[in-house]
Amino acid sequence: MTRKSAPRYAVTVPTPKRMIPGDIKWPGGPSVQQKHFSLPYFVIDYIAKNPTSTEMYNKLIQCCKHFYEKNPILVVKNMEENSISSTNGSENDEDEYYVDMDIQKIKSKIWLTDVLNLVGDDLPNFTFTSVLCSKLYRCSLSELTLCDVNVLFDDFKYLALTAKGVELDNVKMTYYDGKPVLLEKILEAIPNVEDFY
Length: 197
Fold this sequence. Notes:
Number of helices: 6
Shape: elongated
Helix content: 10-25%
Radius of gyration: 24 Å
Distance between the termini: 102 Å
Strand content: 15-25%
Order of helices and strands: HHHEEEEHEEEHEEHE
Number of strands: 10
């Protein structure tokens, strides 16, 4: 007499998704990789890495997480010290919100679009503007205000390149070697300025 063995059932064990360092942790679980686009992948990759405007970028990241994961950018309308103000892509003030955060803990790139206002009471010398500039994706400011801060000239040139209004109050601006920057050099560095205080 042969013994019948117990029936065997195929058990499917879900394999965990491969975790890549730097993956974004989304609420509600990880995102599903987007595999099918109506355009070739190299076109989608180019669009994700080279947004032409903040409005377009906001629409892309709202329609698909893939675009934010490829190029994580925080669009910031106004920044004051460590507090940033952003919008959801529209021009209505009611859609604006404010967030307090430590700039050194932000892993995403920042796209400044309107106003930067830095008052040096709580800011360490040189480091804040240097850290901020290292995290910037683009900077298209219309107004730049610096008060009671120490700034490197190269950082200032990058921040003020598109500014129409610049206000400097008790600012110590130097080159990397520590030499002070003359006012004429500051004015040469801001070709688009209309109001300078």
